[in-house]
């Protein structure tokens, strides 16, 4: 018997909180088929991650599931339609990671403009002594920066960029009451910007929103930063644009088929690649784990969920 089924990886901190509050099983620790056959009907609560979601074949074997808590703000891997159809609300972990992901975006922005990875390699390899300095980098100050996805994290990115005295503009489906100019055309915004920062969610509505036309509009000096979802960028078009010099630099934390990064992308000199570390600090993962568990505890105690996803509103 086990009331909580854990599909994602958990930190030690999460494990100790879970052990204090739930009778729980980590699916990776047991023989999946045999366990689901014997105990699947006992499961009331599911803990997962936004990429992994709850695979349909597993969800089908949890007939008494009541809630899905997804550890992460993006939940494009969770089939909210399937959950809603079964009356199962989904919750996620917004806000607690805004500052960390914004720091990651800022880190990639500065690294791209100031050619940081190549400069470090030039010093560490001894090439500086042999061959001298690299060509001059570009300043990160006073740039025009377009944000695709000016939501919770996008606004934190804009705030963290402020000391660089940028001109911030944004694109989204709707104009907001913010002090930044709005574009209703992503290509037009990219044409006007030095850098485009993507922090939009994944899913069908944003699939390949950053296509060849957007990359060509950014141009040979342009910088593309993606801390949103890999699926928002047409990765094949990106590789071609970088290889052909139609786009200047890409700094990417997210990829189409994670953890796979195409060899052609890894081989390019004008990319900075990080392995989806947007929120990956002890402090922020601690806060995310707490929120994911607090949602489950609230549900277990018959209290309102703290952070349900909008798609579940009709169930609550
Ligand atoms: P949020 O507050 O919901 O903001 C999302 C923004 O995207 C909104 O401004 C929304 O504006 C825009 N948007 C949504 N759908 C769109 C569409 N079809 N076309 C254009 N714009 C669209 O979400 P958040 O908390 O800031 O998180 C954003 C995303 O960041 C997450 O979904 C996740 O994918 C990603 N993320 C990545 C990491 C990482 O480790 N790299 C960590 C955390 C989050 P409109 O509604 O006006 O269109």
List strands and helices in order, with pairings.
Elements: E1 4-6, H1 12-21, E2 24-26, H2 32-39, E3 45-49, H3 56-59, E4 67-71, H4 80-85, E5 90-91, H5 98-113, H6 116-124, H7 127-131, E6 144-148, H8 152-161, E7 167-171, E8 182-183, H9 186-192, E9 195-198, H10 212-218, E10 223-226, H11 235-243, E11 249-252, H12 263-266, E12 271-273, H13 282-300
Parallel strand pairs: 1-2, 1-3, 3-4, 4-5, 6-7, 6-9, 7-8, 9-10, 10-11, 11-12
Helix pairs in contact: 1-13, 5-8, 9-10
Notes on the protein architecture:
Helix 9 (186-192) packs parallel to helix 10 (212-218). The radius of gyration is 22 Å and the shape is elongated. With 316 residues, the protein is of the alpha/beta class. The two termini are 27 Å apart. The protein folds into two domains: 4-96 and 282-315, Rossmann fold (3-Layer(aba) Sandwich), CATH 3.40.50; 98-273, Rossmann fold, CATH 3.40.50.720. The strands form two sheets. It has a seven-stranded parallel β-sheet with strand order 8-7-6-9-10-11-12. It has a five-stranded parallel β-sheet with strand order 2-1-3-4-5. The mean pLDDT is 98. 36% of the residues lie in helices and 14% in strands. It is built from 13 helices and twelve strands. Bound molecules: NADP nicotinamide-adenine-dinucleotide phosphate.
């Amino acid at each position: 018997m086990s009331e909580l089924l854990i599909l994602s990886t958990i930190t030690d901190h999460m494990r100790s909180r879970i052990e204090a509050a739930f009778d729980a099983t980590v699916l990776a620790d047991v023989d999946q088929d045999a366990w689901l056959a014997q105990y699947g009907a006992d499961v009331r609560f599911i803990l997962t991650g936004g990429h992994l979601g709850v695979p349909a074949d597993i969800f089908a074997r949890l007939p008494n599931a009541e809630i899905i808590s997804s550890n992460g703000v993006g939940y494009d891997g969770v089939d909210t339609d399937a959950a809603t159809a079964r009356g199962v609300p989904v919750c996620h972990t917004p806000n607690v990671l805004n500052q960390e992901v914004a720091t990651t975006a800022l880190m990639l922005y500065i690294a791209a403009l100031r050619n940081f990875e190549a400069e470090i390699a030039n010093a560490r390899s001894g090439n500086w002594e042999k061959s001298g300095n690299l060509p001059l980098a570009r300043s990160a100050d006073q740039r025009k920066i377009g944000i695709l996805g000016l939501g919770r994290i996008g606004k934190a990115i804009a705030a963290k960029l402020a000391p660089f005295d940028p001109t911030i503009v944004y694109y989204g489906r709707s104009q907001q009451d913010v002090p930044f100019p709005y574009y209703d055309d992503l290509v037009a915004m990219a044409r006007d910007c030095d850098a485009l920062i993507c922090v939009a969610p994944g899913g069908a509505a944003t699939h390949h929103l950053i296509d060849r036309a957007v990359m060509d509009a950014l141009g040979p000096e342009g910088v593309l930063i993606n801390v949103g979802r890999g699926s928002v960028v047409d990765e094949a078009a990106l590789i071609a644009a970088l290889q052909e010099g139609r786009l200047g630099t890409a700094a990417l934390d997210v990829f189409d088929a994670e953890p796979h990064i195409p060899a052609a992308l890894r081989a390019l000199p004008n990319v900075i690649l990080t392995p989806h570390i947007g929120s990956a600090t002890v402090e922020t993962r601690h806060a995310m784990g707490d929120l994911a568990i607090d949602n489950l505890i609230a549900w277990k105690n018959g209290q309102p969920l703290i952070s349900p996803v909008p798609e579940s509103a009709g169930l609550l």
